[in-house]
Amino acid sequence: MSSENTSPIRGKEWHLDPETEYRFELDIGTSLALKLLRGQAEIFGAELVEGQTYIFGQECKAAIFTWRGCTIEVFGNPSTDYISEETPMTAYANVHIALEQMRVRALRIIHGSPNNSEDESSLPPSSRLSEPPRVLVLGPENSGKTTVCKILTNYTVRAGQDWAPILVNVDPGEGAWAVPGTISATAIHTPLSTWSPVNPLGSASTSAPMALSSNALVPLAYWYGHRQTKRNPLLMDRLVRNLGQNVADRDGDAEEKASGVIVDTPSSFASSPSSGMKDDQRHALIKACVDAFNINVILVVGHEKLTMEMQRTYGNRVTVLKIPKSGGVVELDHSYRDRVSTYQLHTYMYGIKLDPPPGITDGTLGGEPMTDLTLAPSSLAVGFDDLSIFRIGEETMAPSSALPIGATRTVSEMQPAKVDPASISSRLVNSVLALLAPPNPDESERYDEEVLDLPVVGYLVVTAVDVPNRRMTILSPNPGSFTGKTAIVGTLEWQEQ
Ligand SMILES: Nc1ncnc2c1ncn2[C@@H]1O[C@H](COP(=O)(O)OP(=O)(O)OP(=O)(O)O)[C@@H](O)[C@H]1O
């Protein structure tokens, strides 16, 4: 009888000295598994559990950092991997400590205890040190803004103080907890995982976060509809303010209130030439964030000129700090970003399916078991009149030539225009639509632009339009009827591969 070889497969061991990090990048279609054998290690601020196997995929690029040294075992073939001894983690940890002190002071004040540990009159007036930290993270493309937000958030929830900072994403290119085109916010109670660029800010409650509730994140989201900020900066401004209002109105216990807010921004806020935005537009959007979230700390990742600009504009009321960029941040090109956007929409519809490296049979994806993360979306036929679809701020149906002589078309950037699916210019096939929360039931409270201010409850994709029968086919992971609902279409498209 032949005996089967049951000896466990061995990976490659890496020994990391204190304050170094193991960096890796994955190619298309490859995955990597990693295990902490000894010591302490963290991935963007989230601690690894010794002996647990972590799986990474979908072109993930990340780093395992250690403060005290560790040994890790790596399975699979990353396209690049190396150990770096130069990291900005000490600077990031110092920022965290300063923010933590603000939280502790803010909590004391919320509880009504006198703040006698320091004489505030000796502190710089700009620092508003007894308020919860409300941090805006700015920086150019590929500077590591999202990673900094993640590290600061993870250190906060790891502090063991019951903090629950609100993490806000106003980068519509990122996808954050759902799909690109969205800006969103959610309170974070447990460390954010890293396993794929599909969930850059941790996993929401399955990939249909707004519709399903579980113990994971349930973000509040507004639909901007485009990946680039320059498409409609005025709309962006309004949505940022809506999000800020919701965050400000949120109830919470003392710890939650003292935890503060961390806002991740798009690179278009930092530099105009590459983003296609004018300087005054990006300044207006930074101001929208500063006002909406009542920002008291601005962190600028590795950009001298922007730091000076922020210092000049906000230095009298906000603490402006430049923090170093990590040498590990990967330059992500447009085709990579397009692929991640496609992965995000696919994951939203179908959930997660990732093949681990050969020989690995168990493991977790960002802390969740690999099984049961798939979804089965339904394809439904919906009548043209069942679902009201709007497009924001774009000319719709009638061509300019159809207007009376001398009349010019003035469609404001904020104007919701009803889309007629039967029209040749509706451009609905393969479009991603955001399904909105119901409008105000009180008719007297309704207003023309109300659809701009309604949060998202889910997303769907129009896969076919049948004009003769006045029906369209819709793919959505959320079962249920669309009758009487309202949706907005933008410029985001997705097609089954
Ligand atoms: N120390 C590191 N080692 C390896 N990869 C890293 C490191 N820090 C960041 N990355 C990776 O680099 C990529 C870019 O980082 P990140 O998304 O934080 O930058 P960003 O400035 O927010 O990007 P954007 O240009 O989209 O605004 C991500 O894939 C991230 O996981």
TrEMBL record:
Using the record's annotation, list all stretches that form the Clp1 C-terminal domain.
Answer: 375-496
An annotated GO cellular component: mRNA cleavage factor complex
Q: Which residues form the Clp1 N-terminal domain?
A: 16-106
Residues that, per the record, bind ATP:
21, 61, 142-147
Q: Where is the Clp1 P-loop domain?
A: 139-351
Q: Where is this region: Disordered?
A: 113-135
> GO molecular-function annotation terms?
ATP binding; polynucleotide 5'-hydroxyl-kinase activity
Matching Pfam families: Clp1, CLP1_N, CLP1_P
- What UniProt keywords apply to this chain's record, in alphabetical order? ATP-binding, mRNA processing, Nucleotide-binding, Nucleus
Free-text function comment from the UniProt entry: Required for endonucleolytic cleavage during polyadenylation-dependent pre-mRNA 3'-end formation.
> Could you tell me what this protein is called?
Polynucleotide 5'-hydroxyl-kinase GRC3
Give the taxonomic lineage as stored in the record.
Eukaryota, Fungi, Dikarya, Basidiomycota, Agaricomycotina
